[in-house]
Amino acid sequence: MPRRRELLAASALLPLAGASRAEAVWPSRPIRLVVPFPGGSSPDLIARYLAEPLAQALGQPIVIDNKPGAGGNIGTGAVAKATPDGHTLLFTIQGPLITAPLLSKALPYDPARELRSVSFVASSPNVLVVPPSLGVETLAQFVALAKRRAGALNYGSVGTGSAAHLAMASFITRAGLSIVHVPYAGFPQVVNAMLAGQIHAGFMVPAIAMPQVKAGKLKALAVTSAGRFAALAELPTVAESGYPGFEATSWQALLAPARTSDAIVRRVAAETIRIVRGEGFRRELLPLYFSAAGTAPEGLDALMRDERVRWGALVKQLRIERE
Fold first, then answer.
1. What is the domain extent for residue 266?
2. CA distance 174 to 152
3. How far apart are CA 149 and CA 166, in angstroms?
4. Structural domain contains residue 17
């Protein structure tokens, strides 16, 4: 009987021993990095900037797997359901992680339960842009015009619940304005509509907005970062323009399936932090108007908790729903 108990105890430890051996040789094959947006998008570009040095550090190729669709929900959901062996990772923006669960009760994954943080990688402010024909030079002038023409102006975004939409909804609520929301499929359509005079304003990522601003086709009024953004230091923030505390950034992060081991997550996080905080990576981000972050998993956890509370309150207050 004692011998049998010893055998049972030993057999119970076999799966754990196997798991330990598997982690010891991780990664044992190429790592799939899912980007739930199309090639050429900012998440795709930044993921590729990260993938090459990370692959060198981990000793295995990292293959970018673009899985666009449903605002990033398709690719994000695929990673949430993936085998948590460290060979599948996710690189995404905040939409599928924060706003999608707030706006959809039928989301096929739960990012809070089925994904775990690896690192907060980069962030960018939004820029409030208007057509020059609107005749305003500052945020204060825009607010004054919007109040005089209450309900007559409109703004574009890349869809209900997008970062651009929520940033503008937050601002017009704070400023007490009445401006009509017009959703579009993507930023190129928003830009074209603004150039055609069909919409009067919109928050955009700088990589999309600034070429048009520099060409004189659009006018930039303010940025949504908490303080002056180094790459756009000439632009005032919304906060310093009369709305203290206003902040609304777009950010990108690295995650893994929820049950991925601590050892693997910590290893990937450590290498990611080293890469992201390096000068080479920072230089790659400059043309995209992103600033590097590079945090431990706990940093991304804290960011997502804050964002869920903040935007959840706005969605509830304004009763925002998917259109």
1. 30-123+249-318
2. 18
3. 22
4. no
Whether omega before 27 lies within 30 degrees of 0, making that bond cis, reads yes
Closest CA to 256 of 53, 83, 118, 61: 118
Residues 6+ apart with CB under 8 A from 239: 226, 227, 245, 246, 247
7 occurs within a structural domain: no
Backbone angles phi, psi at 29, to 5 degrees: -160, 175
pLDDT more than 90, % of the chain: 81
Q: In what order do the strands lie in the sheet with 62-66?
A: 62-66, 31-35, 88-93, 249-257, 115-125, 291-292
3-class secondary-structure state, position 249: strand
Q: Helix, strand or coil for residue 40?
A: coil
Residue 23 lies in a domain: no
pTM: 0.87
| CB atoms inside a 10 Å sphere around CB 124 | 26
Q: How much is the pLDDT for 170? A: 96
